[in-house]
Amino acid sequence: MSCIIREKWVWIIIGACVFVLVVPWMVIWALLSLPELLKPLFAFGIVVSWGIAAGYKDWLMDAEKRKPKSPVE
């Protein structure tokens, strides 16, 4: 059991879980601590960034579907 603490993948999983839990709270905190003028711009930037990421993902998936398949030898 003690050897599992030395495994690299365990720490990657723990770090990823902490990242997923902490980052949204930090984004909300940053949004709430901004001046009133910047709050809507920050929220709009998050929505636009989310849309760009989703569109890029869809584009990659479509490009993968359109790639000609090589004949099996």
- Average pLDDT number: 89
Bin the strand percentage: under 5%
Taking the sheet with the most strands, its summary is: none
The tally of strands reads: 0
Radius of gyration: 20 Å
Helix tally?
A: 2
Shape: flat
Uncertain ranges? none
Write the element-wise H/E pattern from the N-terminal end onward: HH
Task: Kindly name the structural category.
Answer: mainly alpha
Helix content: over 70%
Rounded to the nearest angstrom, the distance between the terminal CA atoms is: 46 Å
How many domain modules? 2
Summarize the structure.
The protein has 73 residues and is mostly helical.
Topology:
Layout: H1 8-33, H2 38-66
Describe the protein:
It is a single chain. The chain is mostly helical. The chain folds into two domains: 33 residues; 33 residues. 75% of the residues lie in helices and 0% in strands. The chain contains two helices and no strands. The longest helix has 29 residues. It is flat. The mean pLDDT is 89.
List keywords for this structure.
73 residues; mainly alpha; 2 domains; 2 helices; 75% helix
